[in-house]
Request: fold
Amino acid sequence: MKPVVIFRHAATEGPGYLATFLDEHHIPWRLVKIDENEALPLSMLEFSGVVLMGGPMSVNDDLPWIAPLVALIRQAYVADIPLLGHCLGGQLISKALGGVVTKNAIKEIGWGSVNVSKNTTAQYWFGELEVFNSFHWHGETFSLPDNAVHILSSSHCENQAYAIGKHLAFQCHIEMTAEMVQSWCEVGADELAESADSIAVQQASAMQENLPLHCFFLNKVANQVYSQWIKGLVY
Reply:
């Protein structure tokens, strides 16, 4: 089986629970560390699926890897190789498919509920779930590309996820582990302090309260979503 390729854009924003899921299902995967200047693959056709993780940068930044990565995302889309984006990854998919990424009305950081849209596409990905507690760390938001179906929203960000066939883009983070939350709180301490007065920003102590339980339930959601996503892998 061809491996799933996972693009990492920041050292602290790896595949998290997704890596555990893929290993448990005996699905090979390859990590491309863009943050360590690893070369992009020449073609997406050597992979069964394409995953894009988060990162602190914007898709609108003038970074040398963004344009070639966007081109690779388009290649995968045309070849019907399933795409899966988390936060920045979802924004990259949106940019590649004709959407736009703009500043969100408010920065959203920490645990917060998201609502599952009432349509059959959302039901396909989330089953009977109507709402769940996800993790957030973003200041921008994406628009929906053509043919996208809206599947998640929150009170602070309308477009939390969409699907186009077997392709899936998230603004929120369903891949979190307890270790990742703790790491992000350390790395993002200054950002948290600067946003201490925001109604949509949790501080580190609140984010880490009952952390194993939060991650346990989020992992169950991710397991449901990832189980549907791997059905589209190109063997």
Q: What stands out?
A: Residues 4-232 form a domain with the Rossmann fold fold (CATH 3.40.50.880). Strands lie at 4-8, 29-33, 49-52, 83-86, 101-116, 131-142, 149-153, 161-164, 167-170.
